[in-house]
Amino acid sequence: MKKINKKSKQFGIIIEGTQNIQGKEQEVICVRYVNNYFEIEDVLGIYNIDSTTGKSLCQLILDVILCLQLLIQTLRCQTYDGAANMAGKHRGCQAVIKKIQPLAQYVHCGAHVSQLIAKSVQQASFIKNVPDFVNELGKLYSTSEKFKHAYLSQYDEENEVSLPRSLKPVCHTR
C-alpha cells in the first residue's frame, strides 16, 4: 500500500458484501489506484461484520484505511451497490465518508448497475418475445415465396449493414 501513498497519491475504495455459508455477513474491501499509468485493483481483505448500517460499514472502511496506513485525505472514490445502507444520502456509508472526506465521490458499482439493467430488460415483454418473433420470421421465410422475395430485395451488396441471405427458424433448445 506504500505504492498508493508514494506513487499514486490518490485511491478509490470498492466494497461488496455477502453472507458466508454460515450466514455471517462479510465485506470484501478493494482499492483501486493508478501506478505507472496502469490501473491497479487490489483486494485488501475479507472482513466479518456484525452490523451492516452505513455507520458501521464506514467505521470498517476507516479502520482498514488506518491499519494499512493509507491517508483518508487521498481517498477520491467510493464504489458500492445502491442499497440504502451504502448509498443513502444522509446515513449511508457514502454520506458518512463524504462528511470526513468531501472529495471522495460516490459511484454506483458498474456490475450492480449492469445486473439491474439486465433484470429490467429480462422482465420487458417485448424482449421476452424476440425469440418467438425471430422464429416466426424464419417460418414465414421458409414457407412464403412472396416474403422471401421482399426480404431479399432489401439485401444490398453496397449497404453497410449486411443482412443474412436467409432467415431460419430458431432452434427450440435455445
From TrEMBL:
It holds the Pfam family DUF4371. It comes from the Eukaryota. Residues 9-92 form the DUF4371 domain. InterPro entries: DUF4371 (IPR025398), RNaseH-like_sf (IPR012337). SUPFAM superfamilies: Ribonuclease H-like. This is DUF4371 domain-containing protein. The lineage of its organism: Eukaryota, Metazoa, Spiralia, Lophotrochozoa, Mollusca.
